[in-house]
Amino acid sequence: MLSFASIVLVGLLLAGPAINGQRGDCDAELQAAGVCGTTSNSGSQVDVSGTQHQPGANPRPPSGGGPGSPSTPRDSADDCEGIECRGGYAVEGLPDVTLADLASFVPARPTLTGEPDGVGVVGMPTNLVARATEQRITGTLFDFDVVVRFVPTGFRFDYGDGASRTASTGGASWSALGQADFTPTPTSHVYERRGTFRASVTVLYSAAVDFGGGWRPVPGVVEATTSGYGIRVVEVHTALVDKTCIENPGGPGC
Fold first, then answer.
1. Are strands 70-73 and 89-91 parallel, antiparallel or unpaired?
2. What's the chain's average pLDDT?
3. Peptide bond just before 73 cis, omega within 30 deg
């Protein structure tokens, strides 16, 4: 009785013409290596000997399964539409991954600070700085081990007074930028009135997955928000005086 692997092998061997009991597409080098099977057909019985190996062929699925593992054998090339066929087996491809599939993979929230710390001046730039880094999270997806990578690609600042701005960077301090205090930066904002405002930042992450064969981008972006950074905006008035506050504690502005 022929085994399942022998039946598949017979299909492979009979798929091409045989020359002197061997596959017509088996070259001399493979024959010398003893990896080309032989077959004889009496019309009522098929005898198979040796083994037949072709690039990509795998007559026995590896234990444990995994992405790209061979599944059931196919009798016809028509059965392989939409999937990859190798050596008479259909190799199932990995499914497309969407953001909804990554619901259990959550990137960390960014941090948000400002200059001056928690204070702003009406009519002058208040500098906000957000920080977020690339993150890689391991887990399981579709029963396969996977690594999910999140890379920050944009920062949306909401300043609490109705104004917002999206920047490609989270910003930096005035000293790191080599700028004087209260000068404009790519993430700064000018408040036009006094009050206390709650600023926030939302980081836009691009996602990619790796099942062990390289990174596959996932369409769309994942958002992570940090809110509640309080900024007290005040008015500043100046006056010319002839003495400092130390010399005259009751003077204007003291």
1. antiparallel
2. 75
3. no
Q: Which amino acid, residue 148?
A: V
CA distances from 59 to 24, 37, 40, 51 (A): 20, 14, 21, 10
Backbone angle region of 212, left / alpha / beta, with phi > 0 → left and psi within -120 to 50 → alpha: left
Both tokens assigned to 117: 């710390």
Any idea which residue has 């579709």 for tokens? 142
Domains, the chain: 4-91 (no CATH), 99-234 (2.60.40.10)
CA–CA separation, 200 and 202 (whole Å): 7
With contact defined as beta carbons under 8 Å apart, do 80 and 70 qualify? no
pTM of the predicted model as reported, rounded to 2 decimal places: 0.58
The residues facing 90 across adjacent strands are 85
pLDDT in tens, 149-169: 999 999 999 999 999 999 999
Paired sense of beta strands 119-121 and 215-234, if any: parallel
Q: Which amino acid belongs to residue 190? A: V
